[in-house]
Amino acid sequence: MHLGRFRFFALLSAAFIAMALVSVDFAEARRGGSFGSRGFRTQQSAPPTRTAPNQTGPVERSMTPAPSTAPRQQQTAAQQQQRPGMFGGLGGGLMRGILIGGLFGMLLGYGFGGLAGALGFLVQLLLIGGLVWLAMAFFRSRRQPAVAGGARTQASAGGPGFGHSSMRDAAPQSSPKASAAGFTVPRIGGGAAAAAPQMTDIAVDQEDLDMFERRLGEVQRAFADEDHAALRRLSTPEMVSYFSEELADNAKRGVRNEVTGVKLLQADIAEAWNEGEDDYATAAFRYEATDVLRDRTTRALAGGVDEPTETVELWTFVRRNGGDWKLSAIQEAAA
């Protein structure tokens, strides 16, 4: 009786959670969030701007690996392998098994004799294991050569581009300069290139600003039309993969994302920099659009609000060797 009641409440709770997740999923037309890559600054927060005055966190979902995370994890794993602890490794497993077997022996009526026999067997294993360990340590010490210059090797293991302060931290602040298209372009301070030689601040001109504004509408239209060819032309392969994933999910659910009436209200440049062959620029957009989900068959409203709403996002663009700007990251600005 009690078991049946417990199962009933468990099934009821699971159904309630599933319905809550579905309702949240359909409440908003877009997933939002933060995805893409900003080069070496992917794990850095973009500076606040007039359009997005609150601090926006780093990109959450990216194919660009976080610096120094993997080496630290590998080092921790290596330390754990070298020092498995008292109950780690094969010896620890044998110890636990023998002790548990001895305790079971007492519980089954064999008294302390079962535990004593187990402890005697354990002592023999420890003696044999100690001899094996001493032999392995002796042969390992004869094989391992001495390493010269260890301190220099450790100091240069950080990798290029990481561990340096960014130029926007080192550059002196100055008053912004307004452009004709509504963008606010920050002035570039001098002397910052020495702080981060891999990243150099650059200036964007009016032609670049006009291109960013066009890209906002073009990407939204290509996504709403499910035009994969246009998305590949306007975005990086990483961004195309995220867009394609969301479009495939919409198709599986039988809905279509409609974005109409995109109108830029305010924009400014948060930062622009160069990384070798690539130029990056992060723009803060405040725009108005009608963003809804509709049923593919009946055209009925399936999510979102069927009226214009305002959105504030950070869009990062990248170009290689002076080519066309392509969308490389979208970040939902903090409210």
TrEMBL record:
Residues 64-85, 170-179 have a biased composition (Low complexity). Keywords: Membrane, Transmembrane, Transmembrane helix. Residues 190-332 form the Tim44-like domain. It holds the Pfam family Tim44. This is Tim44-like domain-containing protein. It comes from the Bacteria. Residues 42-57 have a biased composition (Polar residues). Residues 37-85, 150-179 are annotated as: Disordered. InterPro entries: NTF2-like_dom_sf, Tim44-like_dom.
